[in-house]
Specification:
202 residues, SH3 type barrels, 4 helices
C-alpha cells in the first residue's frame, strides 16, 4: 500500500517536472523568436489592413518630426505609407527605417506587432530585397515631384525632381512645385546622401 502511494507521488512529481520543462521550453522559444524580430518586421504587421480596421501609427523621426501614417509597402530598408488626414489620406511618404527614432503603438496593437509570420521555406520575399536605391530609381523614372526632408545640418526640406540615383546618393533638380522639370525652372542640382534622408513626401 505504501509503495503504491510512493509511486503515485513520484509519478505526480515527474509529470509536474515534464509540464514545467515544456513551459520553460515554450518560453525560451518565444524569447528566441522575439530576439530575432526587426523593427521593419514589426512595422510590417500594420500594413495591408482593411480601411475600417486601420489604426494610424505615430512615427517619430531623427529630425524630431512626427508622422501619423498608415504603412503600405515595405522594402529592405524603407517603407511607404499614406499620411493620415481628416477623413482622407493626406499624401504619401517614403521613410527609410534608419530614420526612425521611435514608434508610438496603440496599447491594443502591441501583441499584433509581435505576431510576425515567417515565410514557409525561410527564403526572403522579393520585396524584402528591394533597397532604398531601387525605390528612388522608380521615382526618378516617373519624373515625380518630391519633397525631401533631411536630418542633421542638411536643412529642412528640398523640393524638385530626382534626376539620377547613385549607390549612396541621388541628384535632386531643385524647382518649385507645379513647374515642369525644365532647365530654365531648375534653381540648382543638389546631391543628397541616402543617410541624411528623414522622409520623402510624394
Amino acid at each position: 500500500m505504501r509503495w503504491d502511494s510512493l509511486f503515485d507521488d513520484l509519478e505526480s512529481q515527474l509529470e509536474q517536472e515534464l509540464h514545467s520543462d515544456e513551459g520553460d521550453l515554450r518560453a525560451e522559444e518565444y524569447r528566441h523568436r522575439l530576439g530575432r524580430l526587426t523593427l521593419r518586421e514589426r512595422l510590417s504587421t500594420f500594413s495591408g489592413q482593411e480601411a475600417g480596421e486601420r489604426e494610424p501609427l505615430s512615427i517619430e523621426l531623427v529630425t524630431g518630426d512626427v508622422l501619423v501614417l498608415f504603412p503600405q509597402s515595405f522594402g529592405r530598408d524603407w517603407f511607404s505609407a499614406d499620411l493620415a488626414g481628416q477623413g482622407a489620406p493626406a499624401g504619401a511618404v517614403l521613410v527609410p527605417v534608419g530614420a526612425i527614432a521611435g514608434v508610438i503603438v496603440p496599447k491594443t496593437s502591441v501583441s499584433r506587432s509581435l505576431d510576425v509570420s515567417e515565410t514557409t521555406d525561410g527564403a526572403p520575399r522579393l520585396t524584402d530585397r528591394i533597397g532604398l536605391a531601387f525605390a528612388l530609381r522608380d521615382l526618378c523614372r516617373r519624373r515625380a515631384f518630391v519633397e525631401v526632408h533631411c536630418a542633421g545640418g542638411a536643412g529642412a526640406s528640398h523640393s524638385g525632381t530626382i534626376d539620377r540615383v547613385g549607390r549612396d546618393h541621388f541628384d535632386l533638380a531643385v524647382h518649385e512645385q507645379g513647374a515642369p522639370r525644365r532647365d530654365r525652372n531648375v534653381a540648382h542640382q543638389r546631391l543628397v546622401p541616402f543617410e541624411v534622408i528623414a522622409y520623402i513626401r510624394l
